[in-house]
């Protein structure tokens, strides 16, 4: 009797799991970082003001992760992405009683263009802001924290670029 109840409970768990998986797939759920890019954007030329900069490298990895082929040579027949600006500014938010800066606002600005053949050039610009608390007594730890924060901001910028590309459907 106990094994029949246990067997029934196992079946219910399996059916629930299958039903949840089907519902998840039916609603279009995709893992983070996977974007459905238009077929016209599957082969693209990427240029940047800083070809070896961290943002450019992250965008390249994200594009390749999404099965986009990056052209090595420029061609006016291929869609083109130009990363025009990748800049970090900081603004003082507060100071210690001795006059040293206690807190900054980090402002990471990215500007880029997407050029698709026979269409108008699309311009994009966005900012990512973070607050950063400085402590001169922990200079090494704080410089490491700042480097990690900048790396995360660049990853977020690359995600944002891919999300905006996924929303473009050239016709």
Number of helices: 3
What fraction strand?
A: 25-35%
Mean pLDDT: 89
Shape: flat
Query: Over all CA atoms, what is the radius of gyration?
Result: 23 Å
Tell me roughly what share of residues is in helical segments. 25-40%
Features:
171 residues; alpha/beta; five-stranded mixed β-sheet; 3 helices; flat; cell outer membrane; LPS_assembly_LptE; lipoprotein; LPS-assembly lipoprotein LptE; signal
Please, could you describe this protein's structure?
InterPro entries: LPS_assembly_LptE (IPR007485). Keywords: Cell outer membrane, Lipoprotein, Membrane, Palmitate, Signal. Helices cover 38% and strands 30% of the residues. With 171 residues, the chain is α/β, with parallel strands linked by helices. Strands 2-1-3-4-5 form a 5-stranded mixed beta sheet, with helices on one face. The longest helix is centred in the C-terminal third of the chain and has 28 residues, at 139-166. The radius of gyration is 23 Å and the shape is flat.
Short description:
By secondary structure, this protein is an alpha/beta fold. It is 38% helix and 30% strand. The termini are far apart.
Chain-wise SSE layout:
Layout (H helix, E strand, L loop, with lengths): L1 H25 L16 E6 L5 H12 L3 E2 L9 E16 L5 E15 L6 E12 L5 H28 L5
Parallel strand pairs: 1-2, 1-3
Antiparallel strand pairs: 3-4, 4-5
Helix pairs in contact: 2-3
């Amino acid at each position: 009797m106990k094994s029949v109840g246990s067997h029934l409970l196992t079946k219910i768990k399996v059916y629930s799991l299958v039903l949840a998986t089907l519902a998840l797939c039916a609603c279009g759920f995709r893992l983070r970082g996977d974007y459905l890019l238009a077929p016209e954007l599957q082969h693209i030329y990427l240029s940047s003001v800083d070809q070896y900069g961290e943002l450019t490298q992250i965008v390249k990895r994200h594009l390749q992760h999404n099965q986009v082929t990056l052209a090595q040579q420029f061609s006016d027949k291929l869609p083109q992405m130009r990363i025009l600006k990748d800049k970090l500014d900081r603004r003082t938010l507060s100071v210690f009683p001795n006059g040293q800066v206690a807190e900054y606002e980090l402002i990471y600005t990215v500007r880029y263009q997407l050029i698709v053949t026979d269409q108008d050039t699309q311009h994009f610009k966005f900012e990512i802001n973070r607050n950063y608390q400085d402590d001169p007594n922990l200079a090494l730890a704080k410089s490491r924290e700042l480097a990690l924060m900048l790396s995360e901001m660049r990853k977020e910028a690359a995600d944002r670029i891919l999300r905006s590309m996924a929303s473009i459907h050239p016709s």
